[in-house]
Specification:
Helix 3 (48-85) packs antiparallel against helix 4, helix 5 crosses helix 6 and helix 7 (146-161) packs across helix 9. This protein is mainly alpha-helical and 446 residues long. The two termini are 26 Å apart. The chain is globular. The chain has helices at residues 2-9, 12-42, 48-85, 89-116, 118-124, 132-144, 146-161, 165-189, 193-217, 234-268, 271-307, 311-338, 340-345, 351-364, 371-383, 387-400, 402-413, 415-444.
């Protein structure tokens, strides 16, 4: 209980460091894994450019999988934090058991349905006869691991709510380092190509699942994963699902925009432009991942203090996170502007792909410094249980604004219009989220 008590008493700046730094480190390592993963795939002899384009095709399906994975985990861990803030440990353990079971059921369902219809799905998401082979090899393995990836991710998120953010981060870091070791072994030593990268990924996901289960069953956890709580109770699931809807639709929106973007890219730039977008988004993710880490640390602090009616501390956590996130993203923007060739060169040595990506990233990254306001503002509303508001705000950047823009602007500016669509959406979302935050703070007087 000592770990939870500090959430109500310790200085906010120290708490944000304590809870966010481990998550940021984990996210940065995960980003490094993602970068190296794509770099290895892009360097496969003779097929690297098409292989990374094939990987780009899988992104809509990958983000749909992530939508269920992240949403349920966030819904569970947020409710756990709120219940612990209220001093209700028994209810928190029931939420833990229901979250684990729900992720397991969804993971098995996705594995079965996705495997049966994989080829049709990939064609819908923009695969061509040239890229289908690589997309199918990668995604078939990833789908197989869904049944342990989803519950493992949920338990890892719950470890932060249990007051052990460093342990949760260490699990992610160890897993990602293992992935960096396994990738070249499976891709090059065993000559398994893009499929080898996927095998390395699911092995690391299995490690997270087993390690997290051990913590909540035999480890020194405050909460315990008990068999009696691993059963569906709709009164427990309802608050999980209510909060999960926001990150679910946010992640689903990301998948839908990948689908729309891939189709538009194919029209205006062909298969290689999809590969260029995969490289560009990977580079931006290097700097966005720390902000996602901040949001995880912030979420635990805000949810707990909101449950404990310490509203002023919740506001301070939000402001501190927004300032820190803006600094990180501004630094990323500057580095991308100074060294674009070096960043793109990580992923490919194909001259045409490099040319496409260099032009794209100069436009795509222009609003990078302001994205943190949209991300962290949405998570704030999610953390205090304002599900409807957070859902609408979460959909702004990737659906409500971006999809209409990306369908119209490229008709005027061609491929450049695809690159500039995201910055337009980022600016619009930042303004709206900022206005909602100002209004909420005035109304709640926190």
């Amino acid at each position: 209980m000592e770990n939870q008590q500090t959430l109500k008493e310790e200085k906010i700046s120290k708490l944000l460091l304590k809870y966010s730094v481990p998550a940021i480190l984990a996210m940065m390592v995960a980003s490094l894994y993602n970068t190296v993963d794509r770099a290895f795939i892009g360097s496969i002899k003779d097929v690297g450019a098409l292989a990374i384009s094939g990987l780009g095709v899988t992104m809509p399906l990958f983000t749909i999988l992530g939508a269920f994975c992240v949403a349920i985990a966030v819904g569970g861990s947020t409710n756990i934090s709120i219940k612990l803030g209220e001093g209700n440990k028994e209810e928190a353990e029931k939420i833990l058991g229901n979250t684990f079971l729900l992720e397991l059921i969804v993971g098995i369902s996705i594995m079965v349905i996705g495997t049966i219809f994989l080829e049709d799905i990939l064609y819908i998401f923009g695969a061509s006869n040239d890229t289908l082979k690589y997309a199918k090899e990668y995604m078939s393995v990833i789908l197989f691991g869904a049944w342990f990836n989803l519950p493992g991710f949920a338990l890892n998120s719950a470890i932060r709510a249990d007051g052990r953010p460093k342990l949760a981060a260490n699990m992610m870091i160890v897993s990602c380092i293992l992935n960096l070791i396994l990738d070249p072994i499976f891709i090059f030593c065993f000559d398994m190509g893009i499929q080898g990268a996927a095998i390395g990924t699911i092995i690391c996901q299995l490690v997270i699942c087993i390690w997290s289960m051990h913590y909540f069953t035999r480890g020194k956890s405050n909460l315990k994963l008990k068999v009696k709580n691993i059963k569906i109770k709709f009164n427990i699931l309802k608050p999980i699902i209510v909060i999960a809807l926001t990150p679910f639709f946010m992640e689903l929106a990301s998948g839908s925009i990948h689908l729309v973007t891939n189709r538009v890219l194919k029209i205006y730039g062909g298969d290689l432009s999809i590969g260029a977008m995969a490289a560009i988004t990977s580079i931006c993710l290097m700097f966005l991942m720390p902000v996602f880490g901040l949001s995880q640390g912030m979420q635990t602090i805000i949810a707990y203090n909101y449950g404990a009616k310490e509203y002023d501390r919740a506001r301070k956590a939000l402001f501190s996170a927004v300032i820190s996130g803006t600094i990180i993203l501004t630094l990323g923007f500057v580095l991308i502007k100074i060294y674009p060739e070096k960043f793109i060169g990580i992923f490919t040595n194909d001259d045409k792909l490099i040319s496409l990506a260099l032009n794209g990233i100069k436009i795509y990254s222009i609003t990078l410094p302001i994205i943190g306001i949209s991300i962290l503002g949405t998570v704030y509303f999610q953390s205090i249980g304002s599900a409807k508001v957070s859902m609408v705000l979460g959909l702004l950047r990737q659906v409500i604004i971006l999809i209409p823009v990306i369908l119209v602007v490229p008709k005027i500016y061609g491929l450049d219009g695809v690159w500039m669509s995201q910055p337009i959406a980022d600016l619009g979302a930042m303004i709206v989220v900022g206005l909602f935050l100002i209004r909420d703070i005035k109304i709640r007087r926190i």
